Amino acid sequence: MKMSKVLEVKGLTTQFESKNGPLTVVDQVDFIVEKGEVLGIVGESGCGKSVTSLSILQLLDKHGTISSGEVFYQNINLVEKNEKEMKKIRGKEISMIFQDPMTSLNPVLTIGKQIGEVIEQHEKLKGQEVKQKVVKLLQLVGIPRADEIYHEYPHRLSGGMKQRVMIAIAIACNPTLLIADEPTTALDVTIQAQILDLLRSLKDEMDMSMLLITHDLGVVAEMCDRVVVMYAGQVVETTDTRTLLRHPKHPYTIGLIQSTPHQSKGEKRLKSILGQVPTPDQFSHGCRFVERCPKAMEICQSTAPPLYDVDSHTSCRCWLYENKGDVI
Amino acid sequence: MKQFILNRILSGILVIFGVSIFSFLLIHFIPGDPVRIMLGINATPEQVERLTHHLGLDKPLLVQYGQYIANLFQGDFGTSLKTGRPVLTEILDRFPETVKLAVFGLLIAVVIGISLGILAARFKDTIIDKLCTVFATLGVSIPSFWLAILLVMVFSVKLAWFPIANGTNFRDLILPACTLGVVASTMIMRLTRNGMVEVLSNDYIRTARAKGLEDRLILFRHALRNVLIPVVTVIGLQLAGLLGGAVIIEQVFNWPGLGTLALGAIMSRDFPLIQGTVLFMGVVYVTINILVDILYSVIDPRVEMGVKEAS
């Protein structure tokens, strides 16, 4: 069965202004989110994952601009849309939840108001109808005493509860695509599992697709159908979750997996990838991972590798696969 | 909430008690014999004795204070030496004029300050922002009496749009209120602008944008209320200051408010009247502060909670 694409990102390039000219933070990123699937974007901090997701909804601050590329949402190119048209898409067609629920809710507005206003904005409901819908949403995301919480302010809720409220805001208008930017990173481990469970069941119930941004391969294993690995603003590997975890291709992906703790293996010391992600003004002319790569070759220093199609559902940006696949 | 307000009122009463001690002691701070200073050097010993007795200054300090407080509770602030009328009557006669000037001046300050502040933040680092900064710098550095005289020169003398300082009608009110308003607006503007710039970079503003809300809602519902928290405090303090009488401005425009009353009392060494105005200004200050605190907890729901946890 051929699935339909909900989101197709093509050659997305986002730049930020700086004193020394524009910096390319997201560079020629391509990926597709199919209907009903969960696509993960993985990478360390500073790889451009969040900027990619903010670029999709054009929520970048004023220093950042999409300099080229296309973002097709149900075959409409969002990059060509103006601010007014984007407002109709944000929160209704595509909604987003953020990393830190502590700071993502407005401290001076009640929970009811903050969920209700997105319904008022997009569904043109008023008064009691909005309230009823908000209370239902609060129940749906697993908040007890929904009637009371409706009148509460965010500071009275725990982090996990606040993230549930953020989720309620995101799903209020039945979006087609939910972008979750590190939704569990700021939460306690026990709460993380609950929030992931909630997201998964809501996705199935409401027939949503999901773009899940995370640095946690555990979350990927738990949630995602397919994965895009990003490094230094580029896609370095795209494949399905099973293949990624069992047969990672790119040395960076291999490094990420090796630096994830496994209880069963009983290792004493966790491996790590040496060095740090280069900042956009330090990108090498060759492969951007070359300085940290255990398998670096001569060509990696001088020439940037293209993305190779390793097999029908896996692509990898590494010279190691030069003779094994076609350039995309 | 009730507990919160009660706490505020109790601590307010404590402050007023402190002010009453200060205003009582005022007369004793003067070097030499206050009665001689009041009466001048030509006073006869009988006159001095009579006034000393009249003011109760021949009794022990504690008894004097007890009497002072007892009188205060009966609404007796003493009698003006100059006019012979009760001090409280003198004050209450002038207070409405000061309220008029303060409220109107503050209204101008709030309107100018908040709108320019939002404008400057919305167009941060553009020419609009820079012009607002120039306005704020001028407003802070220009002495208010100079601005007052300038306004009189231009609008009363040259253009003759407004009368020159001789009444208490609305037309007489405009120039002094504008002077007060412009000076007070600069502080409000800078606070609003900086607060707005900071608030607009908060995560919850990004959330509001991700909801697809109109810019108007993001600015006024999500940002402005958070910005107002510090701004309201400053507005409250300014109101309290203005209600205590804008001494210089009232003097320049010959406005019959508390400021001119206090200045007149000082000039004519009318000590009961000075004591009365000091105490009255203290009460006004404390009352406004309590009101600001209550307003604060209405705007920011976290305030009340902090107090509960602390108490």
TrEMBL record, chain B:
One of its GO terms (molecular function) is nickel cation transmembrane transporter activity. It is found in: Cell membrane. InterPro entries: BPD_transp_1_N, MetI-like, MetI-like_sf, Opp2B. The chain crosses the membrane at residues 12-30, 101-121, 133-161, 173-191, 227-253, 273-296. Its main location: membrane. GO terms for cellular component: plasma membrane. PROSITE patterns: ABC_TM1. Belongs to the binding-protein-dependent transport system permease family. OppBC subfamily. This is Nickel import system permease protein NikB.
